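Below is the record:
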Amino acid sequence: MARPTMAQDIERRLKELILERGLGPGDALPTEAELMELFEAGRVSVREALKALQAVNVVEIRRGFGTFVGSLSLSPFAEGLAFRAAVRHRQGEPGLFELMRVREALEAGLVGTVTAGIPEEDLGVLRGLVATMDAEARENGRVARSTDRAFHLALYASLDNHLLSEVLDAFWAAMDRVREDLDDGHQDPLVTCAQHREIVEAVEAADGARAVRAMRTHFDGIRTRLEPSPAR
């Protein structure tokens, strides 16, 4: 195994420093000169490490103001998923199908938990989004991706898990990005509405098994379109 470079070592140590000092997004980090002294490293290595961490939202470099802890957003993760799926798909591999199956497993595993006690306010939001889907389907012949995405994010809001929300949004963003690029086809919008309505009704009835079945059914159409053909 190759030994880490000086810049890679600084990346590791800077992340440790953020944890040790209990810093969060927007908090100031030591200046470039202070980092050089702290890590006994040259300017080039420190700058290389900072640029690498900025690329994954761990740090934010504000010219003229200094360096701060970044947003820590999962957008680079989503971009990586999307790119990997697109490349593998275009090489004739099931990259997009695999990405969809991961998201399906995650959502089917979570929706039963939601039925344990979803607030009426959240149910109202979900009903409203299904009504919007229905109007979009009848007026435009399609359900807007933004509405579908909002539904799936709102469905798990009651779990009050910020990391979960980011992970789900990252998978959705990756899937959406690749599906737009590769045009994998579209399901009948009225069927889409009916499937989302069934999910809401199952959750409202606190029927976990029904909710899981409804979620699996929702993914059936996507799975059928993306499933690789058996090798001849």
Q: What stands out?
A: The domain at 75-226 is CATH 1.20.120.530 (Four Helix Bundle (Hemerythrin (Met), subunit A)).
